[in-house]
């Protein structure tokens, strides 16, 4: 099997599996209980918070809230801070958990501001920031790394320009595709209001995520019940998942530099292979200096991406087409069309995403399979066009 859909999810690291198994067996008590077992569970959570804070260089000015994943973290922060009437903006290329959350404000007559015309390269053109001041935008929501294109919104220049051009606008970043792939700088937390993380994107378990946010902010809880986690997110804390999350963060950050070099090698080898193909390929991921090496999105007209995906699947090669959350939609990718692709080009696109588990031999095998599969499928699509 060759798995090249790591932006959708990653295989759990053996060390993380071992940690999860250990805590599921031995740390089953409710961390809210006042007897010894419960207090021990509570202490483990506090240890995890300290470990995660140290790994991500999170300052004491920010709170950490454990959630079920990136989608809940995004919803919790955006709705908790802005619903129903605070004005918001986004690039127009975000994950559905950002876009749909912002769109939900429309039922209150609160239309989010789309900056899509300033996002044609896959990341935000900072020349648009004065518009946020003009429109009195309270929160700007962006992706650290775009989940379909791999383009990066560099936070240092963004925060600096926001401070001068739109000082009243706070910044929330979906960091789900960033952690473990690109360096997390300590300086980014100064001025950053919120940041979301999901463990299964960097070889951790599914069902556990994190929201980091400025403690000066007041978030309205979206789940009501107990007073866990500063009263912001009710519910019994899943100690084993939290400990496994902590382990996956530790491994991801410790290996980040080594992994980045590995991903760069895979990315370069892959791109060279695409250039040598004897059929037309359009590279959709092309933001050069602001590109995460873990993701490549490309178009293979006239063969549709979904047909190619299933053809490769029969050879036990697994790739993606975009956000797995939207995979069953028959509509072409809104992100790809948002950067200027036609509907046909969007339908003919594939996303390949790497992890530390991939190697050059797998890349070569994939490229050969892509080439032979394209030859097989091309006749079908040419016939369909002529008909």
- Count every helix, treating DSSP H or I runs of 4 or more residues as helices: 12
| Beta strands, count | 12
Broad structural category: alpha/beta
Global mean pLDDT: 95
Summarize the helix and strand pattern as letters. Answer: EHHEHEHEHEHEEEHHEEHEHHEH
Structure description:
This protein has about 375 residues and is of the alpha/beta class. It contains twelve helices and twelve strands. The protein has a seven-stranded mixed beta sheet with strand order 2-8-7-6-5-3-4, with helices on one face. A three-stranded antiparallel beta sheet has the order 9-10-12. Strand 3, helix 4 and strand 4 form a beta-alpha-beta unit. Helix 2 packs parallel to helix 7, helix 3 packs parallel to helix 4 and helix 9 packs across helix 12. The chain is globular and about 70 Å long.
């Amino acid at each position: 099997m060759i798995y090249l859909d790591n932006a959708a999810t990653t295989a759990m690291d053996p060390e993380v599996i071992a940690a999860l198994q250990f805590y599921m067996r031995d740390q089953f008590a409710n961390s809210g209980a006042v007897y010894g077992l419960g207090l021990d569970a509570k202490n483990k959570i506090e240890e995890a918070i300290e470990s995660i804070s140290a790994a991500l260089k999170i300052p004491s000015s920010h709170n950490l809230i454990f959630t079920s994943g990136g989608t809940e973290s995004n919803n919790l922060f955006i709705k908790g801070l802005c619903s129903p009437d605070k004005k918001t903006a986004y690039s127009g290329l975000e994950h559905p958990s950002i876009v749909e959350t912002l769109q939900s404000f429309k039922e209150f007559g609160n239309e989010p501001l789309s900056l899509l015309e300033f996002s044609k390269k896959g990341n935000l053109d900072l020349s648009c920031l004065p518009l946020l001041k003009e429109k009195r935008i309270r929160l700007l929501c962006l992706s650290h790394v775009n989940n379909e294109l791999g383009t990066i919104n560099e936070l240092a220049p963004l925060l600096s320009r926001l401070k001068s051009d739109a000082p009243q606008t706070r910044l929330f970043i979906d960091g789900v595709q960033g952690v473990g792939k690109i360096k997390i700088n300590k300086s980014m937390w100064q001025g950053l209001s919120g940041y979301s993380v999901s463990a299964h994107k960097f070889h951790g378990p599914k069902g556990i995520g994190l929201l980091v946010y400025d403690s000066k902010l007041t978030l309205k809880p979206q789940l009501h019940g107990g007073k866990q986690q500063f009263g912001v997110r009710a519910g019994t804390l899943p100690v084993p998942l939290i400990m496994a999350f902590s382990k996956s963060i530790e491994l991801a950050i410790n290996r980040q530099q080594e992994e980045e070099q590995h991903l760069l090698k895979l990315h370069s080898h892959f791109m060279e292979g695409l250039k040598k193909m004897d059929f037309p390929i359009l590279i959709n991921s092309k933001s050069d200096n602001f590109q995460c090496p873990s993701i490549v999105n490309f178009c293979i007209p006239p063969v549709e991406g979904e047909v190619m995906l299933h053809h490769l699947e029969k050879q036990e090669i697994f790739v993606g087409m975009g956000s797995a959350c939207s995979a069953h939609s028959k509509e072409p990718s809104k992100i790809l069309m948002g950067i200027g692709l036609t509907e046909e080009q969007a339908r003919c696109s594939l996303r390949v995403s790497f992890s530390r588990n991939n190697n050059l031999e797998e890349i070569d095998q994939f490229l050969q399979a892509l080439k032979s599969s394209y030859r097989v499928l091309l006749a079908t699509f040419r016939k369909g066009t002529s008909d």
